[in-house]
Automatic annotation (TrEMBL):
Transmembrane segments: none annotated. Its main location: cytoplasm. One of its GO terms (biological process) is regulation of actin filament polymerization. One of its GO terms (cellular component) is cortical actin cytoskeleton. Belongs to the actin-binding proteins ADF family. Coactosin subfamily. It comes from Grallaria varia. Keywords: Actin-binding, Cytoplasm, Cytoskeleton. It holds the Pfam family Cofilin_ADF. This is Coactosin-like protein.
Length: 142
């Protein structure tokens, strides 16, 4: 059966993360049968990491504050999580299903496909976002 996405509900969740007026820093998009729907949302990145278990595949849209001494910037990451216990067929479908998620989640600095818990490390993600962000003034002194 072809995968569908609940665009309106997913767009609302996506906008919560993008809105500076909310404290929501992450949201997941999960499978409900063959439909992608908003999953959980929260403030703490560690809570997001706990959503990424070995038996699930999900998409996460996460807000990070990056930057250097000269400027702080908000950067967004699209994380595709595929747990180690996910079947080969579901793993393969996740790549094509991601195109549906990208119809809603259109603004992000970097995209990650992760199946190893070590790669979910917050410092690793932030460092990758920083590299993607352009100018870095950390090396300069005042």
């Amino acid at each position: 059966m072809a995968t569908k996405i609940d665009k309106e509900a997913c767009r609302e969740a996506y906008n919560l993360v993008r809105d500076d007026a909310t404290e929501v820093n992450w949201v997941t998009f999960k499978y409900n049968g063959s439909t992608i729907v908003p999953g959980d949302q929260g403030v703490d990145y560690e809570t997001f990491k706990r959503e990424c278990t070995d038996d699930v595949r999900l998409f996460g849209f996460v807000r990070f504050t990056t930057g250097d001494a000269m400027s702080k910037r908000v950067k967004f990451a699209l994380i595709t999580w595929i747990g180690e216990d996910v079947s080969g067929l579901q793993r393969a479908k996740t790549g094509t299903d991601k195109t549906l998620v990208k119809e809603v989640v259109q603004n992000f600095a970097k995209e990650f496909v992760i199946s190893d818990h070590k790669e979910l490390d917050e410092d690793y993600i932030k460092n990758e976002l920083k590299k993607a962000g352009g100018a870095n003034y950390d090396a300069q002194t005042e």
